[in-house]
Amino acid sequence: MVSICIPTYNQAPYIELAVRSVYNQTVKPFEIIVFDDCSTDQTPQILEKLALEIPILKVFRQPHNLGIAGNVDSCLRAATGDLVVRLDSDDQLFPEYVEKLSALISEYPNAGYAHAAIQEVDQSNNFLNERRLFRKTGFVTGETALMEALKGYRVAANLIMFRREALVAVNYLAGRPNFGEDYHMASAISAAGYGNVYLNEILGYYRVWVDVGNVRQKRKLSEIDGIRRVFDDVLAPAFQRNGWGLTKVNQTRVNFAVRQSDCLGWDIYSEPEKEELVTAIYKLSSAPKVKFFVWLHSNKMGGLFKLFSNLKSVPKSIIKRSVLKLQTSRAK
Fold it and tell me: What is the pTM of this model?
């Protein structure tokens, strides 16, 4: 039994596409749940019309705006299926998504979630990049997934089929940060002993937005805090419980803090805002290497180093793309 959960807010141009992509599955879910976070556009009217047409569609409207984490949490908790898919309302599923991923996750009782490759599209539905993970189709254990979580959120996109018992085990999104809540929850699922299964086949569209007005950059403080919370709340305690020590965790915190410090060279922040960012970065890691990069970017000297780093990463990117193409061609 599969539930599809679609949290939404002001996505009138796309919400119908998302709902219909779910209803037109080769193996239909038994319920489609939409939680509207007090949209101010035509989203409520579109959902009202769809509910009259699609009998398995259940529409809920929040009494007040909860934000992304709160609305997603409400939506996931309302699901009653054994498997629960989280689909953002501007994305779409391929017709075989439910059929293929539900079959795959059923082969692995210890998989807390299943995910697949996706196709990026822009606001006008033009194709952009294919997103594939640098791994083969198959299962990884909870311990392996926990180790890989040190590298970041290891999915092609936030379009996931969860085993509901895994969501219950980690209490869904309760108490998680407003930014990076998906990374936080996936890491918690791994820490709870669940592995995950990946299908190296494109099974959905993931919409990529143009960052108008530097909105994403202005959320940098929340982003840094969200990353820190993953390490403080989940990864460090889990590594200690497993007897692995904190050496790798602390090294990775340094790497994340160094990467985040480049925001100090951006012109969009005032000096007080930069002071807040420095404080947040040091909470993630205050190692000497981090302090050096904070000084470097704060003094507008990070550009040359970034250019050198980009040049070094080019050969690795070429090798990675070549391997992914080879894996894809063999799979076909």
Answer: 0.90
